[in-house]
Amino acid sequence: MRLSRICSAPASPGADPVRIAIDRLLFDESNPRIIKRLGPKPTQEQIRDFLIGEMEARELVVSFMANGHLPYEPLIVRRPHRGRHAVLDGSRRLAALRSMRDSSDERERQAFTEKRLGEVPCLVFQVNAEQELAYLGLRHLSKTKDWSAAAKAAFAERMLREGVLLANAARFTNTNRSALHQMLLMRRMFERAGQLGIDLPSSTAEGEIAFWQLGDAIRRANTKQYLELVERENPLEEPDINEERFERLVGWIYGNAKTRQTKLIRTIRDIPELDRCLGHPKSTTALEEGGSLEEATEELLAAGAKVSTHLARAKGFVQRATGALSDVGRDGLQEVRQARSELDNAIGAFDAALTNRESKA
After folding, report:
1. What local confidence, expressed as pLDDT, does residue 149 receive?
2. Does 6 score more than 70 pLDDT?
3. What distance in Å separates the CA atoms of residue 33 and residue 342, rounded to the nearest whole number?
4. Is 7 helix (H, G, I), strand (E, B) or coil?
5. Above 80 in pLDDT, residue 13?
């Protein structure tokens, strides 16, 4: 069913909970968080394993053993199809309950029976697909629930592919066109990385950080210009990009086993510094030739600086090294002596150049 219009306000599920046996409930294979990790049309067993593993659904078992299933937090389910309901909201709870029922721990099985967890309160959606998308969008894209940014991007893409206009999708998900466009651009970039054979972090916590690190980078002017990035008006279409430079960027942010590039970004706070370096040819060259972010920053600071400025900064470095001498162990003293000798040679070369310049002045 393609959506041709957007309702003025998203409907809610039916107001009265009903108790439904957990055997009559299905995991929703169209859940964006599940699609993001398992791809289209995963099996019920694959979804269960994902929820128990990466999504850590079993952390809910302790609460179920103590309190049962609280009636004011019902599962949200679709109308039945062939006698079974797909769970739109509450999949982790369903996975946890089934793990209790099938557990090898006698205490868990006993609590499952005593708390009557074979049936759970559910609110059954009595609306059409359009209103379902609106409801889920408000719950998740407006951040009242815990979908990751990558899952939100998958959900936004699902809406657009169902025929919802970007402006309308933004309106009934309580966000804006720019934010949705950026999420979808990031989704395209992650897809492009996969096509290039680059493995990005994919666990729940690491994947969320990875999504925002790359997203923060490519929204910045210098990085965007370096990538020669040209976005499409339709966010479902892949943007134009310099793939060689994109592969370098991904390596700088995450590391790249294929090219043996070690990561240069320690935290998301390093992203603005990387963008500054990509705004100058000398610091960009330093990065492309295998330099660290600190070395590229040095090139950036050195560009166009006066000789006296370089000397003042060198003085500051020597003073900091002097203060750090107390932390140097016996094994490190030889390394310090070697560095000091090289500094003497550099100062000697500078003095000779200075004398030569003075003689010509």
Report:
1. 67
2. no
3. 55
4. coil
5. no
